TrEMBL record:
One matching Pfam family: DUF3522
Superkingdom of origin: Eukaryota
Record-linked InterPro entries: EGF, NGX6/PGAP6/MYMK
GO CC annotations, alphabetized: plasma membrane
Membrane topology, record value: Multi-pass membrane protein
Transmembrane segments annotated in the record for this chain: 516-536, 548-567, 573-597, 609-628, 634-655, 671-692, 698-717
UniProt similarity note: Belongs to the TMEM8 family.
Domain EGF-like, chain residue ranges per copy: 499-510
Name by which UniProt lists this protein: TMM8B protein
Main location class: membrane
Compartment list: Cell membrane
Keywords: Cell membrane, Membrane, Transmembrane, Transmembrane helix
Amino acid sequence: GLFVTDYFTRTPRKLSPFRSFASIELFHFHIPEDTVIAVWNLITFKEQGGTFGDQCPDRSITVYFRSGAPSVINPLHTHFPRDTAVPGSFALTLTWTLPNRTTGVFNVTSPLPGDWFLAAHLPKDEGKISVKGLYEECQYLFQPQLIVQRLVNIAVLYPGHVTEQTMAPHNRSCLYKVFVPSYTSRVLVEVLRCRGAEGCPLWLRVRAKAPPLHNSTTLDCREHTPCQLAQDLPFWQHWYYVLVEKHPGVPGTVSFQITVQLTDCSRPSLARPPFLPSSASMNMPHSFGSAGGLALGDSPPPTSPNDTKHPVPIPVTSHAGERCWPVRPTLRNELDTFSVHFYIFFGPNVSVPPDRPAVFVINLLPVLDSGGVLNLELRLNVSSLCGENVTVFGCLNHEVPLTSGDNTSVTCETESLAGFLLSVNATASLSRLRIPYPQTGSWYLSLRSLCATEHGFEPCTNVTAEVYLRAYLSPCINDCGIYGQCKLLRTNNYLYAACECKAGWNGWGCTDNAEAFSYGFQLLSTLLLCLSNVMFVPPVAIAVRSHYLLEAAVYIFTMFFSTFYHACDQPGIVVFCIMEYDVLQFCDFLGSLMSVWVTVIAMARLQPIVKQASVLYLLGAMLLSMALQMDRHGLWNLLGPSLFALGIMAVAWTARTIRRRHCYPPTWKRWAFYLCPGALIAAAAVLLYAFVETEENYFYIHSIWHLLIAGSVGFLLPPRAKPSRRLGPLPRRKGCGYQLCVNEQEELGLVDPAVASINSICTS
């Protein structure tokens, strides 16, 4: 065949340590049809400060692959919520081969066409809280590239038509494909008139959606005559690929004919629902009564399978042979992103008769619906059982309905299909199923009622069970509970939702409490963070006593907003917010930096120059507000104004030292008992904040930070300034000359200068 190679790449992204699915990097690819091989080239490199990170430590990178929807991963081995089905995925761990770069390759032979998703993350770290900009952080960048090779001009088989083929000696196989429409109950592939050197030395392989593999459904034509390979309950609206492969070592030319037969249960030759079905055949509740009073007949009038006015028949395998049951559609009601309800016509109560299943279809839109959670709920109306031991089984399958004909062992599995099983009875009348990140397309739910006996389950007689059915799509499982937050995430144009847990809770729905904080621990951490701000009371008292009223007001502001910010910032349920979180955070950060600013300016002793000191206070408030608005966690945006204040203090102290020709402050007691201890306490607080604080010790390390910062302010705040001597009247000079006597009232500004006059001119 003719091969075409396509190449796809994605922009490199920075990887993060795994905490929840919200911390992973998700990549979306699309593999075209008829692809025979897909090769992912996984490129990872380190960066530090804009250059190659040769000094960065090697950290393993885990990559997950899944077709149809994002991978449901659990690297921390936490517990999933109850009634949650976990779809499988493939994981690959990359190791470093070079100091700053590594490359991995992942090959998939005959991949399924459509959407593929890659998820990558770093291992979980110790949760250190680092100050942004303090040092150059090691960044691990990941870039996947996809190379696909697909076949073009694959021969198409038409049902009921015979295709002749001659396989030359240098050819080993021939590939065909046939399209299977909806309402197909069976696909039969047959090889006819096969002639070769050793009889019919051919292998016949069939696979849905992609070319066959070595483990696909296979038949050896030398051992089976006629050479027929059947697929019951095939996937609807998909291509089926047929590979005819010659045995190795067979010489000469092999000629054969191949044909495909599709069994369509919607044809009039098979059982179909009548033109006006009864309420029982349509699985409607008893309250709706009978619609026309017609039963399921053997010779219904022919109708089009695409006719939306009538139920669509589906094939069901049973001991009685092949039959067709109606499929009830659902109405899609979109409320919000990943918030979709599927309503059943004449529902939500559904009648399940004893002699036929009730089948429903739920359609999930491509790409749009795969980022949420598909929820299914069955509730049995026990009063409708009339005292019988009835069990209603539900089978949820993707892309084709499945109802097992075996009564003794009720499963949702065949050789080629696997679904999800639900059951309700008089003892357990409620059953739920949650599927995170479901594959898109059509999901079929088949309900069947059976009675339990000594020999297993048998069909019931004259008992029609009534079941409440609810199906909906939600962003997260139970909205992540009270200890989690459901986040809507985006990668390029793809949306998905994930839980971000707090207070030590983990898991896909924040339901794993193995490491959860107790209520007492949450209360203790909240009280420590809030009550540690009481340490600002002594600095406020010292400031008021020393007549530093502006500084005292700033300390009170800081104490108030720091207390209520930490009361609102708690991860658990011990939370109290008096304002919006963003407002409290801004005021807390602003108060903390303003406390440093006004303390340093007060230490500079600029009070005699009143106007200049007021300008500096106002300038500091404006600069700090601007810096916090730019980046509240940036190091230099916050450290710059503080260094500027320290520079002003250093200039003022230096000027006093030069003018007085003596070190300022002049007394050694001030240095030994106030300045040095205050500076050491402040330095210890900064070191704890920058290098020791982690997520685990945050509540007590940050409380110590509050105590140390407030204590250092009490030491560093200068004492009350001594009142300056009041200047008296200038002494009168005696001797030759004149003396100008000015009215004292005018000098004091008590009279109008225009009216004032010179009292006397004195001569010595």
